Amino acid sequence: MNDAGTILWRFPVEGSLPAGQTFSADDAFVTADGKSIVANEESNQIVVRIDIASETIVWQYGTYGVKGSGPNEVSTPDDAYPMANGDVTIADIKNCRILEVTPSGQIVRQWGTTGQCTDNPPTSFAQPNGDTPLPDGGILVTDIKGSRVVRLSATGALMYDLAVPVHYPSDAHLLANGDVLVADYSNPGAVVVVDPSTGATVYRYGPSSGPGELNRPSLVLPLSDGTFALNDDYNHRVVVIDPKMNSIVWSYGHDGQPSAADGYLNLPDGIDVAPVGTFP
Fold first, then answer.
1. Distance, CA of 20 to chain centre
2. Distance between CA 117 and CA 70 in Å, rounded?
3. CB 166 within 8 A of CB 186
4. Strand, helix or coil at 233?
5. Last residue of some domain: 63, 85, 118?
């Protein structure tokens, strides 16, 4: 949709899905060329690539409906990011690893040790649910257990392992100044910014009541104007928060009213910013 709330494109439509498959999207990210979207389907145990023009699935990793750690298997895949070279990174939560998978389905890189679910990065992770790619070629890992955010260099070296003041960290991102932005997937939820050099909280939005209260927000993104866009999952809306005003300044959906009708959302669990003109 655009910022006026007009729906420009949607998926799936009739004929979008392979026979026998449903669609259970979690997060979804537009590729750099603007031609496709990579989405993870946690409950279906797959990651898919969707061609925007044809509105069809053109690639899949994982075995539909099967949790596993073997070839072409994942267990609760999250945050599948498309890379510029065509590969996809996947936070494979229950296998406690992060994968880089090629278009041919080959694992060419792995962070963490399969099945070793302890907080000892970069050797092991304890249920990573975020693997945000960084401009320097590294990744920012969000680890559920212990409420950790881990930054790795392009070579996989540990840059920091940061405890963040949230109950359930979700999908951390870096701000331009290097601070860490993370959602607290809790009720009431919060948006938190932490200085990784000191561990200090430099911003927090988290009303405990009223129309501004968040209910398990799972992803927050910095926008170019300094505001934060996030999906407020269990309030069934997407909102934009202005940290200078410390308040919601834009929303789509109706607070507490799930629906598939235009103007409504039902458990929105992912958000991405696409360049103007990406969708017809």
1. 26
2. 17
3. yes
4. helix
5. 118
- Per DSSP, helices labelled H in 49-99 are none
Q: Which residue has the tokens 């927000």?
A: 217
How many CB atoms within 10 Å of residue 167? 11
In a domain, 211, yes or no: yes
Question: Does residue 275 sit in helix, strand or coil?
Answer: coil
CA dihedral 57, 93, 96, 136 (to 10 degrees): 70
CATH number of domain containing 50: 2.130.10.10
CB neighbours (10 Å) of residue 120? Answer: 13
Domain around 65: 1-16+25-118
* Cβ–Cβ < 8 Å for 42, 24: yes
User: 70 burial class (0-12, 13-18, 19+ CB within 10 angstroms)?
Assistant: exposed
Question: What tens digit of pLDDT does each residue of 198-253 get?
Answer: 999 999 999 999 999 999 999 999 999 999 999 999 999 999 999 999 999 999 99
53 to each of 16, 58, 241, how far by Cα in Å? 11, 11, 32
For residue 99, the surrounding DSSP H or E stretch is strand 97-101
Q: Please, are residues 164 and 147 in contact by the beta-carbon 8 Å criterion?
A: yes
CA distance 123 to 75: 19
- What is the structure's pLDDT at 280? 79
Do 90 and 188 share a domain, yes or no? Answer: no
The rounded distance, in Å, linking the Cα atoms of 146 and 122 is 15
Give residue-wise pLDDT tens across range 140-173: 999 999 999 999 999 999 999 999 999 999 999 9
Taking only the tens place, the pLDDT of each residue in 106-118 is 999 999 999 999 9
Helix (H, G, I), strand (E, B) or coil at 177: coil
User: Which residue type is seen at 252?
Assistant: Y
